[in-house]
Design goal:
This protein has 103 residues and is an alpha+beta fold. The protein has one domain: 2-Layer Sandwich (GMP Synthetase, Chain A, domain 3). 43% of the residues lie in helices and 21% in strands. Strands 1-2-3 form a three-stranded mixed sheet. It is elongated, with a radius of gyration of 17 Å. It starts with 8 loop residues before the first helix and ends in a 7-residue tail after the last helix.
Length: 103
């Protein structure tokens, strides 16, 4: 493993701190029917989270992401530069189902 791909102890500490803060804010998001989960932290300090539940397709999810989650993480954790979201895809069973399956 070369130095560029090795996880340094400081990076591990930041990763754990990000995960802890996300766990702190999850209940507020869950109260509105959504959810947020940590996905990744890259070397540039960009955090990727997964929004799911009511957050998927919600017009307010970008506001929650940037004004809520990103502001919290960047203000409390040195090294976090931004937060981006990857959204959860629809389960294939609901997309693949045909209305004629019950005929």
């Amino acid at each position: 493993m070369n130095e560029a791909t090795a996880i340094k102890p400081a990076d591990l500490g930041l990763r754990l701190a990000v995960q802890e803060l996300i766990e702190e804010i999850r209940p507020a998001i869950q109260m509105d029917g959504g959810d947020v989960a940590f996905v990744d932290l890259d070397a540039a300090g960009k955090v990727t989270v997964r929004l799911s539940g009511a957050c998927t397709g919600c017009a307010m999810s970008q506001l929650t992401l940037k004004q809520g989650i990103e502001n919290l993480l960047t203000s409390r954790l040195t090294g976090v530069t931004s937060v981006e979201a990857e959204t959860e895809a629809e389960p294939e069973a609901t997309v693949a189902g045909s209305p004629h399956d019950h005929d």
